[in-house]
TrEMBL record:
GO molecular function, one term: cysteine-type endopeptidase activity
Catalytic activity: [protein]-C-terminal L-amino acid-glycyl-phosphatidylethanolamide + H2O = [protein]-C-terminal L-amino acid-glycine + a 1,2-diacyl-sn-glycero-3-phosphoethanolamine; [protein]-C-terminal L-amino acid-glycyl-phosphatidylserine + H2O = [protein]-C-terminal L-amino acid-glycine + a 1,2-diacyl-sn-glycero-3-phospho-L-serine
E.C. designation(s): 3.4.22.-
Protein name according to UniProt: Cysteine protease
EC class name: hydrolase
Species whose genome carries this gene: Lanius ludovicianus
InterPro entries cross-referenced by the UniProt entry: ATG4_LIR, Papain-like_cys_pep_sf, Peptidase_C54, Peptidase_C54_cat
GO cellular component: autophagosome; cytoplasmic vesicle; cytosol; endoplasmic reticulum; mitochondrion
Domain Peptidase C54 catalytic: 39-335
Designated gene of the protein: Atg4b
Pfam families xref list: ATG4_LIR (PF20166), Peptidase_C54 (PF03416)
Length: 393
């Protein structure tokens, strides 16, 4: 244990602090100044849930690996971007983690959804086993698209969060599809998760005395993941401004991607550098204490975050956004439309009202989430396979 602490503490000195710059620091839709808000920046970063490689967890599938060192980095990044969605959903973007301070129950509910055991909603066990259906054997490296598809499937079991997860394929976000998904009046779990509407009339028209206490939510909170390929072997410079703008939006969940076969969770940028949380540290798996309390310090990165030049980013990424309400989604659409007017910024994806007619043309490579041709979809989006084709630039 002493050694572990020692290594962790020596690590602290290897991280550079933020550069003294007049450039604003953007973290998941929040703008900061290095000169006047350094503490706030570090507190915001530390408050994000940080998932890294772990060792000595229960064997995946009962007989599989007990550590994800060397193969689980993209799975951990998927957990981080999804944990940020759950934090926004249940705690709010303004929530902060303070070392030693007693946290609310909802915080532990979020954290427990990612703990390394088979029955947590988004555990490494669930992600690895669900990935088998996507053609990935346990212990195989994932790309951003695979982890997004798997998380979408796992979210259907998380009735507490009651999320609508949409993965926009073929570089196109179809507003009509998202509205249909989010307005599919599904009862949400408990009154705490969704406040009761002003009137006593339930959305489905059932009278109160039927004993149906579950309220129907008019809009399910949206997690929007957009797998993209921003160039052939390196990022096309024309996308850099647009990518930066994604971190400025209040709906931002950040970006998962990295360098080839080495995944990072990008949470912001300063100048020409991306700010990220790195999963490549192996920590022992965490067990709840005898009191049932979960020791949570190792799930928060307590040193300044890593940075890398934006030009080094592998072109295969997935961008994430969270829209808690319909108003948030409408606002996001407006911002994306404005972004297309920014000079020198090439749009990374298209925003359209309804499904373009060419989508249904069988001659076109149709990259929809339910495409049975998953391996072609994989080839198109994942950086582990160099044999892809760019459809349009």
């Amino acid at each position: 244990l002493f050694l572990a602490t020692l290594t962790y503490d020596t690590l602290r000195f290897e991280y550079e602090d933020f550069p003294e710059t007049k450039e604003p620091v953007w973290i998941l839709g929040r703008k900061y100044s290095v000169f006047t808000e350094k503490e706030e920046i570090l507190l915001d970063v530390t408050s994000r849930l940080w998932f890294t490689y772990r060792k000595n967890f229960p064997a995946i599938g009962g007989t599989g690996p007990t550590s994800d060192t060397g193969w689980g980095c993209m799975l951990r990044c998927g957990q981080m971007i999804f944990a940020q969605a759950l934090v926004c959903r249940h705690l709010g973007r303004d929530w902060r983690w303070i070392k030693g301070k007693r946290q609310m129950d909802n915080y532990f509910n979020v954290l427990n959804a990612f703990i390394d055991k088979k029955d947590s909603y988004y555990s490494i066990h669930q992600i690895a086993q669900m990935g088998v259906g996507e053609g990935k054997s346990i212990g195989q490296w994932y790309g951003p698209n695979t982890v997004a598809q798997v998380l979408k499937k796992l979210a259907t079991f998380d009735t507490w969060s009651s999320l609508a997860v949409h993965i926009a394929m073929d570089n196109t976000v179809v507003m009509e599809e998202i509205r249909r998904l989010c307005q599919s009046n599904v009862p949400c779990a408990g009154a705490a998760a969704c406040p009761a509407p002003e009137s006593d009339v339930l959305y489905n028209g059932c009278p109160e005395d039927v004993g149906l206490r579950e309220r129907f939510a008019p809009w399910k909170p949206l997690v929007l993941l957009i797998p993209l390929r921003l160039g052939l072997t390196e990022i096309n410079e024309a996308y850099i401004e647009t990518l930066k703008h994604c971190f400025m939006m209040p709906q931002s969940l950040g970006v998962i991607g990295g360098k080839p076969n080495s995944a990072h969770y990008f949470i912001g940028y300063v100048g020409e550098e991306l700010i990220y949380l790195d999963p490549h540290t192996t920590q022992p798996a965490v067990e709840p204490s005898e009191s049932g309390c979960l020791p949570d310090e190792s799930f928060h990165c307590q040193h300044p975050p890593c940075r890398m030049n934006i030009a080094e980013l592998d072109p295969s990424i997935a961008v994430g956004f969270f829209c808690n309400t319909e108003a948030d989604f409408n606002d996001w659409c407006q911002q994306i439309k404005k972004l297309s007017l920014v000079r020198g910024a090439l749009p990374m994806f298209e925003l359209v009202e309804r499904q373009p007619s060419h989508f249904s043309n069988p001659d076109v490579l149709n990259l929809t989430p339910d495409s049975s041709d998953a391996d072609r979809l994989e080839r198109f989006f994942d950086s582990e396979d160099e044999d892809f084709e760019i459809l349009s630039l």
